[in-house]
Amino acid sequence: MTSSRRLTIAMTTMPNNRKNPKVGLFVTCLADMFRPSVAFATVKLLEASGCVVEVPEKQTCCGQPAYNSGDKATTADIARQTIEAFDGYEYVVGPSGSCIGMLHYYPEVFSDDDPWKQRALDLKARSYEITQFLTDIVNFEQINAAFEGTITYHDSCSGLRQLGVKDQPRKLLSKVENLTLNEMEEAETCCGFGGTFCVKYPDISNRMVSNKTQYISDSGASTLVGGDLGCLLNMAGKLKREGKQIEARHIVEILADMTDTPAIGEAEYELAKAL
Amino acid sequence: MQIKSPNFKENARIALHNVELQEALGQFKYGFPVNRANAIKRLPEFDDLRDEARDLKNHIIENLDIYLEQFESKVIENGGHVHWCRTGDDANKAILDICKQVNAKTVTKGKSMVSEEINLNDYLEKNGVQPVETDLGEYILQLRDDHPSHIIAPAIHLNVNDVSETFHKHHKRPKTEDPQALMKEAREVLRKQFVSADVGITGANFLVAETGSSIIVTNEGNGDLTQTLPKTHIVITSIEKVVPTLEDMSLFLRLLARSATGQEFTVYNTLSTGPKREDDQDGPENFHVVLVDNGRSEMVGSEFQDMLRCIRCSSCMNHCPVYGAVGGHSYGWVYPGPMGSVLTPKMIGIDKAAHLPNASTSCGKCEEVCPVRIPLPKLMRHWREKEFEKHLTPKAVRFGIASWAFFAKRPAIYRWLSRGSAWFISTLAGKKGRLKKLPLAGGWTDWRDMPAPQGKTFMDQWKAKQKAGE
Fold first, then answer.
1. I need a surface site. Which of A111, B233, B461, B465 has the fewest CB within 10 A?
2. Interface test with A, best of B462, B463, B466 (most A CBs within 10 A)
3. What is the CA radius of gyration of chain A?
């Protein structure tokens, strides 16, 4: 099926009257720098679901490093910058529960009498993690992808507990041809990444990710799938160090049928043949 | 107890290399958390009860003075005494005074984390009064001159061999490794202590304002014997334990047992309402309640107020992956796990306890399982803000944040930095797709490979595509 035909089908399934919502892509630092193919896959899915996607120039990081280090002033600066960058978009969507979760914390950064508070609340109401957006907002069902193999899915903490991302990725994955999902034990337990935590407390983080890779390998899956690159880099890095023959991929790569790029941390790659 | 929280990193490193502890922690996660999950499945209204408990606790904290005074007047009406203690020292002195009044030589003790908080045992011993712990775990720890590593399963870091050796050494009886036999042995030794003690000291899970009662829940029955056999019963507890009515208390008991051990109800729920009355068969002649503040009233109205809802069920630590990795002693003071990471900085100072609220991935599991919905990750983050405001954050971290912020606030040069980093790391990695070592990233690469960036940044590729009109 060509992408234009897929687009047509997708548009007919849009639940509301706004046929082509304008979406600002929140790229996220890690996708930008480490794995652009994840951002391209996100764009592909959004466009297939009938959205018009733009990538605001003014965005950088969501501000999580400052927020989690107790630096309120820097967090507020970055929050204001991000709010401005995404002004005017009907939706803000990103391939990370953690970074979108951070956008949802912006209202807490401003006091009630600060005019930015309302703008932060407004941004919060418009921003979604990608699987959540596809499932809950645009009701996108036309997944046109195949994946040969057994996967296991890691629920990243912020997406799961802050945003309620749990069934959405599984629902979408169930539409991928030939894909088998083997749930691992403790799929909801933190992998030990935790942003700066993994370098501030490396040996504790290592204990946590070692537990995780054990559960992953016990699941019998040949591919680990998740929705957050931070966690995936952590787990993929550990799987590689342990010499385990398990690949790691972001869920959007599978949903967008873009698994021709090497998996995370794998050798050799071709530049993303996106779109 | 000696404060070891500043050495958290070193404590954790030792704990991670302690094979026996790791085995115990590995088993631990299949105990309480699994039981809790099963218990909750059997109670569909659990989440509604949590909301009710959260709201009720908030109401109590906002009216703490009223309920405490009501409690006090009821205790006095019942013939008991209430001692208001601002600090741990005040509480220790009050308890020692009571012991002296009745010429106490030995006191039996039910499990009390507040007594650990104020170092009561050491204080009594130094002043000629011998405390005897009667909770089995606490008893083992006392013999070993050890401290609890968990608030409801204090000896969780020990295994049966440790207990066997400890009992053999102190009880001078033939060595056994049969848990039932060890328990029987402890029971025989402790029975004598229960009967001969001059004073019994217990904690309290809740104080009931309408009746002036205190309640203690145990699974061993040691609380009953501690509070009913000696002539004097002292309840030591903290001010936030008060609840308005017996009905309210039962709401918390339902949540407490399920959240803690996964029981529907704790085995022994023992209420004490004043000293023995004329027609009572038995009970203490003197009844004292020592109310400890120790910084809690300062939390009212602060960003840490939510923490006063805590009912000490231990669910947060039972489910915490960091606690599960390093155990309770790593936290270096009385309260471990997420609840400890919020309370400890308040009680010993953020300068000494800064590691605790930082050693969290903010995964949110603790908040998910908290029966009174305390936003623990948020409170830990508030401590990080305090730390940052006071310039206690390590220089390297501050420098790192400041440098990163400089770029993050300037999108144009941030692009340049991302582009450079992506190029640098991917070039270093060459065709391997990952790195075994990366300068300045030893924390990462000591333990795991660093997956390499794909090459060009998304922003650059996207721009090129837009230009090409794709």
1. A111
2. B462
3. 18
